Amino acid sequence: MVWKEMVAKWKEMVMRWRETTLLGVSPILDELIMSSIGKEYDHLKIQMEDIISATDNFSPSKLIGRGGFGPVYKGELSLPTGSTMVAFKCLDHRSYQGNTEFWKEIMMLSKCKHENLVSLLHFCIEDDERVLVYEYAAGGSLDHYLSDAKTLKWNQRLCICIEVARALNYLHDPVETQQRVLHRDMKSSNILLDHNWTAKVSDFGLSKIGPANQPQTYLITNVVGTPGYTDPLYSETCLLTKESDVYSFGVVLFEVMCGRLCYDCSTSGELTAILVPEWKKYYDENKLHDIIFRDLKEQMVWDSFITFAAIARRCLERDRTERPTMDEILNELEVALEKQENTTFDDHLFKISKLAIPPLPYKSRKELVLRLSDGILVDGRKRWLWINEHKQINEMESATESFHTLDRVDTFTNISRFLYVRIMSTYSSYRYLVANVKTQFLSPNIAYTMNLVFKNLSRNENSQIYVPFKIKMEDDRLFRNSSVPRVREDGWATTELYQFINKNKENSFRIEFFLEGHRQESVRMYAIEGIEFRPV
Question: Residue limits of the Protein kinase domain (predicted)?
Answer without folding.
Answer: 58-337
